[in-house]
Amino acid sequence: MADVTEETLIEQGAIPPTDFHSSIERIREISQYDLEVPAEFPQHLKRSASDLLVDEDTLKAAAAALRVGHVILQGPPGTGKSSLARALCQAFNVSVFPVTAHEDWTVFDVVGRVELRLHGDRKEEIVPVNGYFTESVIRCANATVRHFDEPQEPQAEWLLIDELNRAHIDRAFGELFTVLGTDAALPVTLPHQREGNRNLVVPGRFRIVATLNSFDRQFVNNLSHAIRRRFTFITVTIPDKRPNGTEWTPSAGSNCMANREFQTVIKRAAARVATRVTSIEPARKATEEATILQRLSGPLLPCVRSLFDLVERVRYATSEDRIPHLPIGTAQLIDTVELFMFRVLQDSVSNDDATAIIDWAASIKLAPLFDSDVVAPEAMKELATTVASPFNRATRRELLGIVAAGEHFVE
Predict the structure, then answer these.
(1) 199: number of CA atoms within 13 Å, CB side?
(2) Can you give the three-state secondary structure of 209-256, one letter per residue?
């Protein structure tokens, strides 16, 4: 009796293939398997998100939503939506297929198309090219089968879409509405694939995790109710305002989310600067980072505190304050402190003269964020004329320049 090989068993349909690219219709064989969630999942979740400024309720809500289906993480820029998406994937033990949405996306980018390829021997060939959704579904099926054999391997692969509303989603995803809105094993027809390899069934372990900028609405596309029904929306926003009487402190141990953000900004900015200045001598990075951190937490601390005071004022502004409300994210604060510290080191600025540098950094990193159609000129002018020291020079000039440009703008 001849030996039965794995290839023979795959061909006979006894076991699923390890790569479904040429056997797309056989994904149906493993489509019924849903996510494996171990008893220790809460610990995995907490560990994966330990470095994120995300409150526990938001973290648990996002995890629960992913157990059920596809998720959109929405919020202002710089609030850690992409980092949270990757942390969630890590907690579920899945790999990611990352893409960034684009306004020119069509069904050919999402589902697939055919392309004419020219080979080295000058021969032409028409080949199928899978779109992002199709390719990620196939990869998810491949990962599922690998996980059956090697449990330590990722149990699935998910499609991670950054800036979802940059694309015209109804135009790009319209053909997928049916399969995204049901748990039934309904196939998607892939016209770009050969006959016999065209019916794609989405595995039960597949998810789309997308991020959405909920602030710059004048530059992005709206999502229809049809597409909204097929996702669960989780809001990731800026930390809550610090309690009255609480001081900005670089010391660990505070349960206040605002102070946790303050500490995170200083640490990450210090790490970034140290990496840059020691790129040729990486062995010095740890020592340099400790020195920078000590300086930011010591003599330069008043500069960082003044920056947070300025940002706090606009982050939580209301109509009664008569200044613009702008939910500046943590990422923008890290960028500003990094720029500030790098300039201090580059120009050998003394601690006493550093206030001018924090003003400069804010003027070119934060002030341009106010150049937006959602900010009223009157509120901008109120902010510019009342901004406190040390931001009453370069930052004030930049804000007033934005106001003046708006007043003289002709459509």
Answers:
(1) 9
(2) EEEEECCCHHHCCCCCHHHHCCCEEEECCCCCCCCCCCCCCCCCCCCC
pLDDT one-digit tens code per residue, 170-181: 888 877 888 887
Structure-token pair, residue 154 = 């990722």
Token pair of 167 as six digits: 């694309």
pLDDT, mean of residues 269-281: 96
> CA Rg, the chain, in Å?
26
Q: Where are the domains of the chain?
A: 6-235, 257-407
d(CA 261, CA 282): 27
Question: What CA–CA distance (Å, rounded) separates 40 from 323?
Answer: 47
What is the spatial distance between Cα 146 and Cα 155, in angstroms, rounded to a whole number? 8
Q: Determine the Cα–Cα distance for residues 38 and 15; give it in Å rounded to an integer.
A: 25
What DSSP line would sit under 327-339, residue for residue? ---HHHHHHHHHH
Q: Give the SS3 label for residue 128.
A: strand
The verdict on domain 6-235 having CATH code 3.40.50.300 is: yes
Please, are residues 175 and 187 in contact by the beta-carbon 8 Å criterion?
Answer: no
pLDDT at position 243, please? 92
- Of 297, 300, 308, nearest to 266 by C-alpha is 297
Alpha helices in 69-190 (DSSP H): 81-91, 107-110, 132-149, 169-173, 177-180
pLDDT higher than threshold 80 for residue 236: yes
Do 79 and 332 meet the contact criterion of CB atoms below 8 Å apart?
Answer: no
What pLDDT is stored for residue 408 in this prediction? 43
Residue range 196-228, pLDDT digits in tens: 999 999 999 999 999 998 876 554 557 777 778
